[in-house]
Design goal:
By secondary structure, the protein is mainly beta. Helices cover 4% and strands 44% of the residues. It starts with a strand and ends in a 7-residue tail after the last strand. Strand 13 and strand 14 form a beta hairpin. The chain has two helices and 24 strands. The strands form five sheets. The chain has a seven-stranded mixed β-sheet with strand order 1-3-4-11-6-9-12, with no helix packed on it. The radius of gyration is 18 Å and the shape is globular.
Length: 280
Amino acid sequence: MENKYESRYAAAPQDVKSYDTAKLRKEFLVENLMEDDKINLVYSHYDRYITGGVKPVTKEVVLETIDQLKASYFLERRELGIINVGGTGTVTVNGEAYVLDHKEALYVGQGNEKVSFSSADAANPALFYINSTPAHKAYPIKKIGINDVEVVELGTPETANRRTLRKYIVNSVVDVCQLQMGMTTLHTGSVWNTMPAHVHDRRMEVYFYFEIPENQAVCHFMGQPDETRHIWMGNYQAVISPPWSIHSGSGTSNYSFIWGMAGENLDYGDMDFCNITDLR
């Protein structure tokens, strides 16, 4: 079977306060997403969010249903977002091929039975980062190119958080049930993402870090604002952020990350900000 998956249960903030480093990483860090000719999935009980990685090298890889869904096919009751962070690849949906170049995305709505992934060049394979959420309505498939996204410039060099945010799968770009995905890139000399930090108790979030230079790392901060924890992360790793948790990071160099969200609403600006001086 080409699909591998694991399940992660939700945790209460009062429990997470007692976690040591190993326990924190086991519950929230997602490692080894990109394996040759495999689809690796993590099913989170926060908003039933699925995070995954697909790296087709020598063959076409098929997205199969998993037992956790109790569905005859993966997207029977779900929608799917895909962003390619590798070489050129193709996503085939019900026999129709969609070519995705580096940093292009595809939204696939509920009810599409057959989804598969392939690479144009085995020496430079596609790296498909995927997120999936439950869906209540079928919306059309849509490819989102790099010029189709909404671009927002944030931060300043003085606060080491100058960054470009690109909204790929948001309701102002594509019709969608609850999934939101986008990409943030830190400028040279800036290292802080999502600072000032925030929480949004109406939805959870997952961060996927990439473009981390060799021998560098990102320190991801999570937890309640007055009880923060940190997880050191490497390239092509993801971290689950509960609704009650901040989600912010600082790198030993600049980097990029993909953010994905699901929950009560599609208002991207629905955030409860935390004062930097109140963080503990």
